[in-house]
From TrEMBL:
It comes from Tetracentron sinense. Residues 419-447 are annotated as: Disordered. PANTHER family: BCS1 AAA-TYPE ATPASE. It catalyses: ATP + H2O = ADP + phosphate + H(+). It holds the Pfam family AAA_lid_At3g28540. Keywords: Magnesium, Membrane, Transmembrane, Transmembrane helix. This is AAA+ ATPase domain-containing protein.
Length: 488
């Protein structure tokens, strides 16, 4: 009889070699199959039986609903780990550079990391419940925690700093409805508005003043702190529709390299909701409230006037630093004087309809024209008081960009038919004023924006623009050089 059996080699080395060979063969066969994944999971659970772990939570918001900066850093760090590719669920996004793909950890997924020989893991916890915020949970072996925790968190900090510096992308935040308040009220998209301070047509003196005002603001941390003031500055941009207010806000944010928070008052449920939104904004940001006059006069928001005033300079607005607040409106006429009272909004900038000088700037940028035989005719029409908004003129130029002569003729026709009288009295309004009690230039140089209290500066400025009569605006008590010119 011939028996079947497994031949066991007598030499132990041959035996070991054989076992190793079988394991390698198994590994090769199993790689890429679900079985390997299950085995790995078992192996890690067996490891977990032998260790005691410490868990650290990093929530997105702190108990006062302010953004936890560490959460943002951890998120940047975790999404940069190579091991994220081993996670079961990830989100893929196209990056700013068109051929780059970004991988982001999906909710409730875990990613592993090693540091100084210790193995740690991060889980991106996201609960379905209302009002619960997103949290990263760090898992560290108790035996490793004393040795690695501090240096590891420092490592997370410096890596995320590095990444953020390399690819700082300015973001535009918009507030969501109250019902969607999970994970905070702000949603962000990359801020890609094409406007810059160079592309906005406005009086070059005025533009330079605003530029130097912003520059001096950026350098004034110590100055504001010495005065016991919050390091923030507010601007009111007002003027007819299509004169470049929104474009200028975008240009300011780009110039400062700050994120933009665009507050939609129609989506704010009440005054305390507005405070909450303010608390959830980060530092180094431009906070914009567009069309404030409309919301206040039409009462198309649930926010009260006192809610708006508190937002501007109340105690809650002091919870952040290095912030620029910008309010836009079409006219100051129907606005409550409390909003315009001196000191409430630091700088007021008027955006006028197009005059001949602004027209030339637009013709240069839209049509590449420095001069043209039709320019004298255009100038003549402007002198009769005809005016259109830069948006209207820009539109005509864009649609006729193939033929500069046709574009200019169309502008002339539009000025003759639609622009009659709209521009009268506008020239003197291309001014800025400050109600903060300080010249914009912190060195005390009065060449900056006008201060309400600094009467000499105001007079000099008025002389400069040929405005000899001075009058306070009817209700606000704020200097409004534009209305003087208009009425005078
Ligand atoms: N001063 C300007 N210089 C260059 N382009 C301008 C200027 N004003 C307006 N435009 C162009 O017109 C369009 C509309 O401008 P924008 O939205 O900034 O006006 P606005 O003052 O905010 O108007 P509204 O009061 O209706 O919100 C933009 O595409 C912008 O490029
Ligand atoms: Mg606008």
């Amino acid at each position: 009889m011939v028996g079947f059996g497994i031949m066991i080699p007598g030499n132990p080395f041959v035996l070991l070699f054989g076992i190793a060979g079988v394991l390698v063969l198994l590994r090769v066969l199993l790689s890429g199959t679900a079985l390997l994944f299950v085995l790995k999971k078992w192996w890690s659970s067996i490891g977990d039986w032998f260790h005691v772990y410490q868990f650290y939570k990093v929530p997105e918001y702190n108990e006062s609903f302010q953004e936890n900066q560490l959460y943002r850093r951890v998120s940047t760090y975790v999404n940069s780990l190579a091991s994220i590719e081993d996670s079961n669920f990830t989100n893929l996004f196209s990056a700013k550079k068109s051929n780059e793909i970004l991988i982001h950890l999906d909710s409730n997924q875990t990613v592993h990391d090693t540091f100084l020989g210790a193995r740690v893991s991060w889980t991106n916890e996201e609960k379905e419940e209302r009002n619960s915020c997103r949290t990263f949970v760090l898992k560290v072996r108790k035996s490793d925690k004393r040795r690695i925790l501090r240096p590891y968190l420092q490592h997370v900090h410096s890596v995320s700093d590095d990444i953020e510096q390399r690819g700082k992308e300015v973001k535009l935040y918009t507030n969501t409805e109250t019902e969607h308040r999970n994970n905070g009220r702000w949603r962000s998209v990359p801020f890609t508005h094409p406007s810059t301070l160079d592309t906005v047509a406005m009086d070059s003196d005025l533009k330079n003043k605003v530029k130097s005002d912003l520059e001096s603001f950026l350098k004034s941390k110590q100055y504001y702190h010495r005065l016991g003031r919050v390091w923030k500055r507010s601007y009111l941009l007002y003027g007819p529709s299509g004169t470049g207010k929104s474009s200028f806000v975008a240009a300011m944010a780009k110039f400062l390299c700050y994120d933009v928070y665009d507050v939609d008052l129609s989506k704010v449920s009440d005054d305390s909701d507005l405070k909450m939104l303010l608390l959830q904004m980060t530092n180094r940001s431009v906070i914009v409230v567009e069309d404030l006059d409309r919301f206040v006069s039409e009462k198309s928001t649930a926010v009260s006037l006192s809610g708006v005033l508190n937002f501007m300079d109340g105690i809650f607005s002091c919870c952040g630093e290095e912030r620029v607040m910008v309010f836009t409106m079409n006219s100051k006429e129907h606005i409550d004087p409390a909003i315009l009272r001196p000191g409430r909004i630091d700088v007021h900038i008027y955006f006028p309809l197009c005059d001949f000088s602004a027209f030339k700037t637009l013709a240069n940028s839209y049509l590449g024209l420095k001069d043209h035989k039709l320019f004298p005719q255009v100038e003549e029409i402007f002198q009769t008081g005809a005016a259109l908004s830069p948006a209207e003129i820009g539109e005509i130029m864009i649609s006729n960009r193939g033929s500069p002569s046709r574009a200019l003729k169309s502008v002339i026709t539009a000025l003759q038919t639609n622009g009659d009288g709209r521009g009268s009295g506008k020239i003197g309004r291309r001014l800025t004023e400050s109600t903060s009690g300080r010249s914009v230039d912190e060195s005390g140089d009065s060449s900056g924006v006008i201060c309400r209290e600094s009467v000499h500066t105001v007079r000099e400025f008025r002389k400069l623009y040929g405005l000899l009569r001075m009058k306070s605006s009817r209700r606000g008590g704020t200097l409004d050089l534009g209305s003087v010119e208009k009425e005078g």
